[in-house]
Amino acid sequence: MLDDTLKILDDLIAFESVALTPNLELIDYVVNYLEPLGARITLTHSPDQTKANLFATLGPEGNGGIVLSGHSDVVPVDPADWATPPFTTDYRQGRVYGRGTADMKGFIACVLAMAPRYAALDLKRPLHIALTFDEEDGFHGAPILLEELVRNGPTPAAVIIGEPTGLRVVGAHKGCFEYTTTFTGMNGHSSLPDQAVSAVHYAVRFIARLLELGAALPALAPTDSPYNPPSSTVNAGVISGGIARCTVAGDCVVEWEMRPIQDSDADFVRTELAAATEALVAEMRQTHPEAAIETETVCEVRGLEFAEGSPALLLMGELLGENPVEVVSYGTEAGLFQAAGVPAVVWGPGDIEVAHKPDESVALSDLEACLESLEKLGLDILTKTL
Ligand SMILES: [Zn+2]
Fold this sequence. Notes:
The protein has nine helices and 17 strands. It has helices at 2-14, 24-34, 101-120, 141-152, 199-216, 263-287, 311-320, 334-339, 364-382, and strands at 40-45, 52-58, 66-71, 90-92, 95-97, 127-132, 158-161, 169-173, 176-184, 188-189, 233-241, 247-248, 251-259, 292-301, 325-328, 344-346, 361-363. Strand 1 (40-45) and strand 2 (52-58) form a beta hairpin. The structure holds zinc ion (ZN). Zinc ion is lined by residues 71, 103-104, 135, 163.
């Protein structure tokens, strides 16, 4: 099995599927590999048609079954930083090197290597394979795949997102919501502040409200929160505006974020801040009718909320035995699947520490252990009716 996996991994690494660049050759390769196995395949495309998500099913029709999911894209490289060419696999000391070996073509190669085995089994529950595009730059692909899945089915029982967790079971991660808020006031001489509208002053009041809301978040966190710190957090990272001490600032920009542990916290901050913004704008417009406060969403990557006893965590228990459920600080597509109604867990070969870096690699022993669990998924779980 490992030989098959490494052959597929060589092929996958050779596709330079850097985020925001086309991935159709890679998807074609997977289609041509899965179709002869009897897989039923649905592709969904980016608006410009240069990228595709793949959703393939082996085994019976209908709802239920397990999704094995990975993103097809990788982060960019500077070949000068690499000991060997990044888009050619290289084997040294029990590890395979190449861009995407850990994040996350190693997992995808394991899944594809297992596909003929799954196809040969008398599956009682479906096995789905999901590949997305542009995860590494704004999570553009997965929402399109999930929209199609929610609309036309099937509804899977659980998804394993094969991000590199060192094969530890990750049951939750915080979200990352990023925003840019632009304040447009009216400049004037600082000796006559009443005849102008200071964008800087209003930005400060906006930030003050953001911090008040941040201070209210610890009380909203569950008492058994696994995170450090245990609650959702907010941060105003950049503030820029004004031109001189003696001038009332006409413009100001604030870049801020929140890292919610639960969607309700994000809703709370957004709702309260919107109300505060409305009140501030009304005040600004008393002096200057064109004054404005506009918030642009940079990204809203939902977290994976911890769900005790979720089908995804029960599945991992069946596969791996008793295992601690961990939390991580990086984002994945798991939260998007969860929001679409598919219970999710993050579990895959390789370490996140080597991802996104030169000389990215994965241990062959990790790939072997991954294959073993995926085989068990077929033999012990998917061949049995619920
Ligand atoms: Zn990844």
